[in-house]
Specification:
- This protein is an alpha/beta fold.
- Helix content is 24%, strand content 28%.
- Strands 1, 2, 3, 4, 11, 12 and 13 form a seven-stranded mixed β-sheet that branches.
- A hairpin with a 5-residue loop joins strand 9 and strand 10.
- Helix 1 packs parallel to helix 2.
């Protein structure tokens, strides 16, 4: 089974590059399942129902979440619905709305997909979250008897050490651990020694000439002049598509291959 995990889709440029490239990439790499990080889709904050449906139409099968998962109120019913293929981080404390893991039904069998939030995620670093290692242990134990062909874990965080180490912590226990949130892909895509596909950060889908999707002049004014400015997505210039492609043996639930898929569109 070949699974493609798309890095953070950032605002309209991210939606545009997915619309333009995903079907071609699926065909080229014979992809069976597409999972995408969607916490930055709608104007950079969360995802609304309209954009969620647009991604499903474009060929995304399942959507994971990060620290902006709850930013668009109209998506919360879908987050609560076990049959809707979208989740928020599993280690948000109770009683946070939404579900942190769900199953995706495919022709090859069920895939368990889990999202986790790192200890430090930008301005949300002071908010309480459950320990991600303890939480994933609890989830894997609770779901151990349910039949599945793969288990995919998304880890959304700032610390490279967390995103790197959790790969080894889960090596041999899950099919893949994909780090994201930086929007800048790392050069360490690999299958770890016990069979778990891993990358520290998968990157993003959106504009290239930006500060991780945001207009650079806004960041400069905030940094240099201490101006209080809201992030505005950069909507001009070339586009990038970044994703991790990994191949899972459904008999073992472990991965045999992992590679970073990168495409650019010069607009």
């Amino acid at each position: 089974m070949r699974i493609l995990y798309l890095g953070d889709i950032y605002a309209e440029p991210g939606l545009k590059v997915v619309d333009l490239l995903l079907k071609k990439i699926k065909k080229k790499h014979q992809v069976d399942v597409v999972i995408a990080q969607v916490e930055n889709v709608t104007d950079g904050r969360g995802i609304n129902v309209r954009d969620y449906e647009r991604l499903i139409k474009a060929g995304v099968d399942f959507c994971t979440g990060g620290n902006w998962s709850l930013a668009q109120p109209d998506i919360i019913p879908s987050l609560n619905d076990p049959n809707s293929p979208i989740i928020r981080p599993a280690n948000y404390p109770d009683p946070t709305p939404g579900m942190g893991y769900k199953y995706l039904k495919t022709n090859g069998g069920k895939i368990l997909v889990v999202s986790l939030l790192g200890a430090v995620v930008g301005r949300d670093s002071s908010k309480p979250i459950d320990n991600p290692l303890i939480k994933i242990d609890q989830i894997l134990k609770a779901e151990s008897r349910k039949p599945k062909v793969a288990t995919v874990v998304n880890f959304h965080g700032d610390y490279s050490s967390e995103k790197y180490v959790i790969g080894y912590y889960l090596d041999g226990k899950v099919s893949a651990v994909i780090g994201d949130h930086w929007h800048i892909p790392t050069a360490d895509a690999a299958v770890l020694p016990k069979g778990t596909a891993h990358i520290t950060d998968v990157g993003m889908c959106g504009t290239i000439e930006s500060s991780i999707g945001v207009k650079t002049d806004i960041i400069i004014k905030r940094w240099r002049d201490n101006q209080i400015l809201r992030n505005a997505p950069e909507d001009m210039g070339p586009l990038q598509f970044n994703a991790l492609l990994f191949e899972v043996d459904p008999k073992t639930g472990l991965s045999t291959k992992a590679e970073l898929v990168q495409e650019k569109i010069l607009t």
